Amino acid sequence: xxxxxxxxxxxxxxxxxxxxxxxxxxxxxxxxxxxxxxxxxxxxxxxxxxxxxxxxxxxxxxxxxxxxxxxxxxxxxxxxxxxxxxxxxxxxxxxxxxxxxxxxxxxxxxxxxxxxxxxxxxxxxxxxxxxxxxxxxxxxxxxxxxxxxxxxxxxxxxxxxxxxxxxxxxxxxxxxxxxxxxxxxxxxxxxxxxxxxxxxxxxxxxxxxxxxxxxxxxxxxxxxxxxxxxxxxxxxxxxxxxxxxxxxxxxxxxxxxxxxxxxxxxxxxxxxxxxxxxxxxxxxxxxxxxxxxxxxxxxxxxxxxxxxxxxxxxxxxxxxxxxxxxxxxxxxxxxxxxxxxxxxxxxxxxxxxxxxx
Length: 357
Description:
Blueprint: E1 3-6, H1 8-23, E2 28-32, H2 40-48, E3 53-56, H3 59-68, E4 73-76, H4 85-91, E5 94-97, H5 100-112, E6 117-122, H6 137-144, E7 150-156, H7 169-186, E8 192-197, H8 201-205, E9 215-218, H9 220-224, E10 242-255, E11 282-288, E12 300-302, E13 308-312, E14 317-320, E15 333-338, H10 340-347, E16 353-356
Protein name: Alanine/ornithine racemase family PLP-dependent enzyme
Keywords: Isomerase, Pyridoxal phosphate
Cofactor: pyridoxal 5'-phosphate
């Protein structure tokens, strides 16, 4: 059975590095746990790091966190749906919001539960996902800041999540100006300007973050240490917190090209034979015990660089091991490094075992 392994020490070292980075700059931050897909084994590892604030886009995951550690501050990081209002107030201490109608529902429900629910007003900054338009922000704030059982914890924005708009210094300065406008207009204090995600970490390292941006939400940088501006790994961090291990279930020398009339395969693709290639060529192929039900192969990189991934069907993956110096046998494990989306697929699969080292 293929399994996903989390390396505890590497995760802890990444967390310590980021925590020091934020503490030195007086930045509050929370860990985005949605990658873990509510896996209790890995959520427990997250809590052991010393995390005090966890963000997620699935209320069922926040429910598990509250059960594991009730004192952790939970943040629901997308606008709530009407049908989830009761659960969001119950399991999320704070939620991201963009609709007055929804905030009114949260206010009514928080009153019923005898709670104060925190909200962050999300502002549209060009990425064209969720957010109140900037020219409507003051009017929006005026309609919600006096609602009972609602506490406005801050303003925020999402960048690089839909259209790929990057969080430049200018974008974050603009977000900071919205804070100044609200505070001047209504004589209030906005505690958080939540403008930082993993993609904005390079701005911190270059000291290019506006000081008003004082809250970050971090997922990919913690688990993959990836500089999303350059594609490189941050210094002093690990990019291999997760690895996939799959077992070889067949090894056979086979032709490089299929034989017979060709149609669409299970994924809807049609194989095209290159007429310039010697059709008699063969390669040593190994079959692994995972497939498209678990993973999209483009998000995998074999740690043995001489291995080539050929393709996947629903629950098997074929690799070419012809050029490897390793003498693989049936029953051996082949390991893979993962991109973020690769880990997300695997963590969402019930067929992949989850382990910790």
